[in-house]
Amino acid sequence: MPSLRTTLGLLAACLGCAMLLWVLERSGPRAGQAASGAQESLFRAPLRETDYLVIERRGYRAELRRGAEGWMLTHPMAAFASQTEVQRLLDNLERAPLRARIEAHELRLRELTLADFGLLEPQARLVVAGPRARAELMLGDLTGTSNELFAGFMHSGDVLLTDPALLAALPASPFALSDTSFVRGDSRRIGAVGLRRPGQPYLKLSREPGGWMITQPLAARADEAAVAALLDALAKARIARFVWPVPGSPDDAGGNRRGQLLRFGLAEESEQGVQIQLWMTGDPVGRRIRLGTSVAALPGHVHALADDGAAVVAVTNTLYALALRPADALRDRRVLVFAPETIDTITVQGVEPPLALRR
After folding, report:
1. What is the DSSP string of 278-289?
2. Which residues lie below 8 Å from residue 252, measured CB to CB, with a gap of 6+?
3. pLDDT value of residue 161
């Protein structure tokens, strides 16, 4: 004899299948088909004006706001967001189809509630808001065949069916929405670089019409390849981890900031770190980044802080190693600098007879 639990399980499965068949067999505009024959969408209006997002899923909560500099993460950490990833999410939301609708009064007739569709404790919750509208969407259970996803909007008793790809399109963590670029901006616009290193004199590189020059602590031509490697490392530096304040712990940020920066080798007076000052074209003030001590839990990485970033992060130590190179390693070793194609005469004196070569 089958157990009571097995019997109840089979009854629940039959009920789920019956609900799905009932929904899919319905026709007309209420089943997700507009009167014109076009597929309806979950969101009736374009999301181009969206300036606030909340995503709750799998134990995390991410908040994003769009400002003058684009999308920013405001929770669980303060960081620049990846504009591409946020736009991809908005595109997926805007394209999400409305395949069917079970209206609230129909649920009551069949003695069903939102809990039967996983919408009281949803798998994910999203808030999409702009200056003129706000929507809160819950994503519940998959249907028995897993090819449909139950969804619903707050303050609406209707149950909607959409593509389960919408759930898969949500980020796995807040970090997946962050901009991992450590140095923001186009490195081709950098006109000068200043380096402060422990135990070494201050070094400054300037881009001149004839190429890069060392202007401090001496005046000399710079090795173009060495400078290019430094700029390339700046452009390729990526954030591997947010270290402090600890994501999701806002009270941590209110602690002794100076003490924390000293701990990571990032304080002004620290003798362990490297400070890099960058001057962009048209920016007389410049921006500064600091590279500090090694990250014990992440070999090959150092603690880092950018002036336009609120958090201490971990980046690969490639940039740190290049920034420690002494002035002598950055000098151009060539005795003469010229373009061979511009030479049409070579004269050798001090030999008898004098030698002259003409192109």
Report:
1. EEETT-SS-EEE
2. 244, 245, 246
3. 96
